[in-house]
Amino acid sequence: MNSPQPLAFTNARLVDPESGYDGPGGVIVSEGVIADVAKGREFGKLGKGVRVVDCGGALLAPGLIDLRVKTGEPGAETKETLASAARAAAAGGVTSIVVQPDTDPAIDDPSVVDFILRRARDIDSARILCAGAATKGLKGEQMAEIGLMREAGCVYITDADRPIVDSKVFQRILTYAKGFDALLAHRPMDMWLARGGAAIGGEFAGRLGLPSISPMAERIMLERDIALLEATGGRLLVDQITSAGALETLARGKARGLRLSASVSINHLSFNELDIGDYRSFAKLTPPLRGEDDRQALIEALASGLIDIVVSAHAPAPAEDKRLPFDEATPGAIGVETLLPALLSLYHDERLPLVDLIRAVTLAPAELLGLRGGRIAPGAPADLVLCDIDAPIIVDAAKLLSKSKNSPFDGRRLQGQVLMTLVDGRVVHRAEG
Amino acid sequence: MTATAHDPTRVALDAIRARAFAFPKRHFLSAGDLNAPQAADLLDLAEAFVAFNRQTSKSLDLLKGRTLMNLFFENSTRTQSSFEIAGKRLGADVVNMSPRTSSITKGETLIDTAVTLNAMRPDLLVVRHGSSGAASLLSQKVSGHVINAGDGQHEHPTQAVLDALSIRRAFGRVSGLTVAICGDVLHSRVARSNVSLLHTLGASVRLVGPATLMPAQAERWGVTVHHDMKSGLAGADVVMMLRLQLERMQGGFVPSTREYFRFYGLDREKLSRAAPGAKVMHPGPMNRGVEIDSDVADDPAVSLIQDQVEMGVAARMAVLTSLAARLEADQ
User: Is B159 annotated as belonging to a binding site?
Assistant: First the structure.
């Protein structure tokens, strides 16, 4: 599949979030980087040996950068391996994934970071980056070796799904990480308010008799996080914001000029609590799905730029962990492969311009992590996705490339067929037919 | 069975046959599975079983050759016995399984268990499980007909049928009555099923209890919510007390049982707020002196609690019979 010769993509709908360009154009890829970009013009005479790909008007955009992907490797390879996650990513137009540290063993030590990155070098279907744990063993007690893990190559620190409930520990991490300019990603959730819950508290969970989580759990923890961020001057990514109440808190924090950004999962943009339906455990997520008002507020916040980044929150879980009574089922959903078509729903529904949607999964995460990708500019890595954004698809979980098939999008009609994905100029995925 | 045309057993059996009908759904998972005419039909059939159960001979063959499996993941002597007696009186082969204490669930998921049991080909599966939605999940994986005998905090529909039957026999109707459901509504599957079925049958329902034991936005269930027993019980025809689910409380829903009884326990004084002739119900087992005073619970003039137990068998016989009729229709 690799292409050593230069490739010219012509006749594309080119979207570059860095310049805000959305229009006709093309790209020439050579030696792993973007060699030339044509916006609103034709390339001149192409050199000898340049292979031309006529895009037929399809979208050509930077490859997606997904900041939140869980794998089962190391420790639970039956769920997902780094290789299977990367293949799924490539099929979805995602060219970089950030592996979460809640593996077994946890990525809380530079040697585990090194292990992941060494494994990643043998996998060429997507770039594999990794996040390091913020605390040893993800226990929320003792700070992990943040500096050494940064040195080993981790791109940010986080305790993944586990909120750091000890405020002193949280404060120290923010303070200490500042010395390494390390970004802390934190999922705000007051664990006391969330204790024992399986669904968001409200009328629907009440009817279903599901143990519920107070809707205030997120906002309260975020209020704390922002107060401590203000005191420390660190860098914080609010991981997967889900509620209108917390958005108000986020807006106040941002207005104070803090080094604060926020992500939202594609699931919370696409589903609401009613999608739990008849105890559909594939829609059991953490954080749990919210009400429709919250979902609408999240879309508005993405449109206004209050939310910076969209993630897949890819969390593979095999059938035996999912086909259980709702409150016993493992939360989480796979999503790296469906991220782009699901995101495009917001474009087709005329909620957001295409360039803004693409920015949230390319340039915004790249800038946050200091990566060179996420843009279409000469010299940038040739990580690209070609996508027929109008092509209708019906998601069939069984056909997704993840080892686990727990997709809440199963059976859903979406628009957006990934035609080709390139990493470093190499074709790592091409649609069949 | 040997009987003559004037035999009371035959008369009761004729009444049962005349009222028998095929259950409208494959499974009975929720009280909301029934519309008003269907619920009335079920109560009529149950009524016929009440008469039958009062005969000396209580043996029928309506479920002869059928296997009824009682699958209780959660202990409940009362409900399990009720289903067992109902099944046996109808002539079914009844098997009781308690997967929590047997080898069947060691390392197995509920689905594995379902597949294993399915291979034993039960016709009717009575399921109790500690998780909401478990009966529904199981029903998707088995070929037999599933009856939800209580799933987590969700529903307990046969309890609602027996409660409605008890009310209808006491008042001659359900429609137009005011029923106050009092206590730990949050954790109560009995409350959820009763709200649904009582609404279907035309009663007006109030929920009464401390705010910590009330589901969020419960007023959207079409009920009025009261945190004060005086207003909650004012003029009520039926006072349905719920068990304070002490074992479910992970801490601090109410300060103490003493305080709970003071404000939410049913005694004569609080009951005096209800309508004249009001009846008291409780799904059992009771925490005497916590949610109900023995003085009220044991007073045959107001308490329907013993009737509820009797109606439980009849109601379950009605459900089993109509599901078996549905089974025949499906085959």
Answer: yes
